[in-house]
Amino acid sequence: MSQDELEELILSGKPVENVDLSDIDWTDMPDGALNARHCVFRETGLTDAELAGAKFTDCTFERTRFAGANLTDAIFSGCSFFDGETRVGCDFSRADLEGATFENCNLSTSRFGLAGLFGAVFKNCKAAGADFEDARFSKQAGSRLAMSRVSFLSTRLDMASFRGAKLDDCVFSECSLRQADLRQVSFASADLRNSDFSEASFNGAFLDNADCRGATLLGVDLTRLSSFEGLKVSSDQLTDLVRPLGIRVFPATR
User: Fold this and answer.
1) Are 160 and 190 in contact (CB under 8 A)?
2) Are 85 and 64 in contact, with CB atoms under 8 Å apart?
């Protein structure tokens, strides 16, 4: 598809379907939300592109760079951001993804350094090995720092890195974070229910008032946390939690 044909479709509000958009210049696109379906973006530079409110359905992104792109309120459904041959994900560094939604997407090994993810939602996604280190989950409101907000729902985040992230009040519901790097992460008042944190590294993490009921906490060492005052757990989780402390739990006797 030519540049002119694409711009005409965007201006008309019509969907862009079943085309290769790898060679499009995204630096000066016309106003209007892109609606792309079954399209291919291969080694595409979407750096600083204005794509607020765009919709991408069943699109393939291979080694695509979204650095600095405006993707606020964008919706990605059934998209792949992972190149199976090179095992490399896409680069979202510095992208503005406030209010964006990823559903049924493959984001494995993608990078989100300094990306704005306030209010973003990841649902039923694969994001194994994704790098969220230095991503921004909070929003500045005047002189006050607003509440952190991001939701990961039924998403696979095994071996992902969130090191040092501020994830207070965020949601990780029924996710898998096996062997994830959660060092120095602040999970204060976060909803972590029914997620799998087996062998994840929580060294220096803050879990004050976090809700971990139903979560798998195998390998979590309370002595290595910075704090966990008010941590909520289920009674059947106590054995795994206190084992590193040398405490043995026995059934109640009458």
Assistant:
1) no
2) no
Residues in contact with 7: Cβ distance below 8 Å, sequence separation at least 6, in sequence order: 29, 30
The model's pLDDT over 165-174, given as tens digits with 9 standing for 90+, comes to 999 999 999 9
Of 193, 196, 197, residue with least CA distance to 222:
197
Nearest one of 81, 44, 96 to 65, comparing CA atoms:
44
Measure Cα distances from 247 to 111, 221, 222, 242 in Å.
40, 12, 12, 5
Phi-psi region of 143 (alpha: psi -120 to 50; beta: other; left: phi over 0): alpha
Give the C-alpha separation, 237 to 230, whole Å: 15
> Which uninterrupted H or E stretch holds 228?
none
SS (H, E, C) 198-209: CCCECCCCECCC
Question: Model confidence over 182-235: pLDDT tens digits?
Answer: 999 999 999 999 999 999 999 999 999 999 999 998 878 888 999 999 999 988
* pLDDT surpassing 90 at residue 85: no
